Amino acid sequence: MHDFTPVPALIGGALIGLASVWLLAANGRIAGVSNILHGLFEQPVPAWRAWFIGGLLVAGVAWQFATGPVPLREGFPLGWAAAAGLLVGFGTRLGSGCTSGHGVCGLGRLSARSLVAVATFMATGAIAVYLMRHVLKVAS
Amino acid sequence: MMKQLAAGAAGLVFGIGLWVSGMADPRKVIGFLDVTGAWDASLALVMGGAVVATLAGFRIVKQRAKPLFDERFHLPTRKDIDLPLVAGAALFGMGWGIAGYCPGPALTALATLSAEALVFVAAMVAGGLLQRAIFRPA
Lengths: 140, 138
Fold this sequence. Notes:
heterodimer; A: mainly alpha; 6 helices; 72% helix; B: mainly alpha; 0% strand; globular
């Protein structure tokens, strides 16, 4: 087991879950980040979507302000970053969700669709890491 | 205005959760998905902690007739497990494993101004628009 950090993982996970509960309680909305993002490019754009994404960005700024500059990964090929982004954008829209919408919220709603989606993206994610790290040996 | 502020607060707490948990670091994500190598189980606890909160919290929230700042709950109604769901999840997982970013962490990582996060997010938006262009409802 490498770099196992159970306590921050649980606390951070609980914050993510509580934020999702809050969005449902306040606005009646599912905190699915991919759906919220894709919705920014549809007309009309409900303003709450932009505010949620804005909150994510402010969190990144605030975190660095509080803890100092975060150590960034270096040397990851940008071509792979672009390919991965295309797959994530296309796949989350086709499959109606990502780690938050299907994972955090869908599992919390006991949705069978989300359980299938989570099992599928965990499996292909593990296969992709196996290929990238152990077969193609791309730096990550 | 309350809807916007509520959503902004949700995004902020969600994002802080991503940083606290380590999920905003793509190396941590890849360590979790690297089941045949140097496996780091931490992200299972991120998901576990989050789902415990939603399982309990959603149950309480849904006892209310309506949300605080809206007239109704906007919940997915589909139950069918179809090819787009599985194919989309499969493609998403591949991208997640390649770069170590899913949408939330990639967006909050934009604040580091790292080139890989910027490229990833631009491509993610393009991928979503490409999907819509191909599958535009007739």
